Amino acid sequence: DAFERMNVITTCTCTPYLVGNTPHFGEHIAWAESSAVCYANSVLGARTNREGGPSALAAALTGRTPEYGFHLEASRQPGIIIQVDAKLNGTHHFGALGKAIGEKLEAMGAKSPPYILGIGRASLEELKSFCASLATYGGAAMFHMAGITPEAGLVQPPEETLTITQADLEAALRSLNDAALEEVDFVSLGCPHLSIREIARLAELLDGKRVTKEFWITTARPTKHIADRMGYTWVIEASGAKFAADTCCVVAPIKGRFKALATDSAKACYYAYAKNKFKTVFLSFEEIIQQAVSQ
């Protein structure tokens, strides 16, 4: 209520850049959610540290944030080249790549942003997935991706190189699967929150079908409102799937309700086990829909 009186848009989302809060290149901000911080620094070229909720709110009220870390040019310089020699296809592959890179950076104790080579293209949704996974498994708040992120051409690539092979990617994919398909009793998409393009695709795949398991779609409320107007919500809910706006499975009180989660999110797999002791099945976006409607 206090925020509403100050004309704050009170939506709770891990993808603020999808609902109108899109800082410009070089802008100093103070964001708190780890995947959004990574996206802002890397994909948008804005400047933020990984704030806590209270410090981010204090910065919002005062218009000030401490001048250190990723607000400084020196901290944004890459420390290692990551050469990706693997085939990537879809958000789940980018999530697995974030896990593979993040765990290697964590093991090395690397603190500087990685400079990533070998990725020819990446959609918004794939970068969203990669940011969430890299932040979750490697604690990284920034990366450079040659030919894709805006600062990659403005920094000097380092000399040390680490290669991510097809075998590394496949190992990451395997590590996120510890449940059999027949064990799945919960299906979820939207970690980070789904874009309107993903919701449109979901509606297309669910049109005329019925889900056979508990199926949650998490997104920001403004995105849900667009889905309502476009008719996507009706199609999705007619299948038996459910929207959960302005929340997600990471923070929802669902421990003990389910045994095995099917998702396309490497981040969701991490928290499914760490917080709720669920087993996980990690699949592509399209395969998740197939799993949701299978007997």
What does this structure look like?
The strands form 2 sheets. Strands 7-6-5-8-9 form a 5-stranded parallel beta sheet, with helices on both faces. Strands 3-2-1-4 form a 4-stranded parallel beta sheet. The chain is an alpha/beta fold and 295 residues long. Helix 2 packs across helix 5, helix 4 crosses helix 6 and helix 7 crosses helix 9. It starts with a helix and ends with a helix. It contains 11 helices and 9 strands. The model has no long low-confidence stretch (mean pLDDT 95). It is globular, with a radius of gyration of 19 Å.
Beginning-to-end CA distance, first to last residue = 45 Å
Total count of strands: 9
The SSE order reads HHHEHEHEEHEHEHHEEHEH
Main structural class: alpha/beta
Mean pLDDT: 95
Annotation field: number of helices: 11
The major beta sheet can be summarized as: 5 strands, parallel
Using only C-alpha atoms, the radius of gyration works out to: 19 Å
Runs with pLDDT <50, length 5+? none
Global shape:
globular
- Widest sheet: strand ordering: 7-6-5-8-9
- State which percent range the strand residues make up: 5-15%
Helix content: 25-40%
